[in-house]
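S1.2 Input.
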Amino acid sequence: MLDQTHRYFWRGGDHWKLHIPVLLLAVLLAATSTSALAQNQDQEDRQRIEELRAERARLARSKAKAAAQINALAVDDRTLLNALNDLDNQSQELQFQVGEIEKDIAAKEAAVLDARQKENELTKEIESIHLDLQQRAVDAFVQPSAHIVNQYDVDSLGRSLIKFYLLDYVIGRELDSTDALRVAENALELEQNRVLREQKAAQEMKSTLFESLKDLEEFRGQAKILRAEYQERRSAWENEANEVRRADLEVASEIASIEAAIKKREQERLRQEAEARRRAAEEARRLAEQRDGPFQLIQWPSRGKITSGFGIRRHPIFGVLRPHNGIDIDGDTGDPVWAARSGEIVIATRRTGYGNTVVISHGLGYSTLYAHLSRISVSVGDEVTSGDRIGSVGSTGWSTGPHLHFEIRIDGRAVNPIPFLPP
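S1.3 Output.
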């Protein structure tokens, strides 16, 4: 640190080799001490970030476990839903069959009622016919009605036979009717018995179906209970998954917040250190000017006249207006180029536009630049004294002819070198 500080602020006199590094170090230590607490906070925050990242890893495992459980329950849910749908279909089919049977039972019960009504009507009719037949038989053999006797009145044996035949015919027809009625009554009884048997069978079937429906409803009730338990488990896992996601978001947010705070403090430290270096350089320049006067170059870097000054000009190659950050000094290829002031070589290489270039740091933020050289005679790290040859005039880089491009910079900012050159 001291060596780097010395190189940055090294100036011609030996006394600055001791005083300026100490001055800059003191300023930087003062700036660093103000950020010590922030650095301790950074360390604590980074440790907290590691803890939070470990927590996120644990939450990720919990999230994966919850997702697996939810997926497994989803499979169980589809199986359960399919079973419930099958049960619903079976139940609807059985209910339809029960409805059809109930219709058949109602029809058969109506047929039974109709048969009973017919039975009653036929029974009454049979009883009426029996009474009428009994009365006619008595009247025919005891005292026939006048109209019947008159109707069959005859005076001969033949006609008398006809009379008895006709009476027998009438009675016989009535007896035939009675037999027919008895046959119908027997048939009605048989039909009634058949209907009763079918009714009984239908009732038994209905009872069986109702028992099946009862079993189905009981099973469906159990399935619903299982589904409710499943839903409760699923809700519990979903709630846990939501809690894990929420916690993960909170942890991620806290990590981002801590990292942002660390970055902000780091930027503030860099700003403070840059500001401290600036103030140190400014203070060093002020002290140097108080002791030795303003910064001045000891000698001109080469012989020759100025062909182009500092400031805006039209570029000789590109033909556009652009800043000219130094002065051009005329010369011939091979003419010597000298260090304008003591310092340290920090650049000695070829650069695109500048060609072969040498930069000397003189400390306190001052530096000089020598460009378009045909030859470089120094290396980076060399310490030179004002007047030491560092190269030769040339026309390398973007140049239209041999000359020396010379700049002076303060903290990297190009300024007009004329006021700093000796008369």
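S1.4 Remarks. DSSP finds five helices and 13 strands in the chain.
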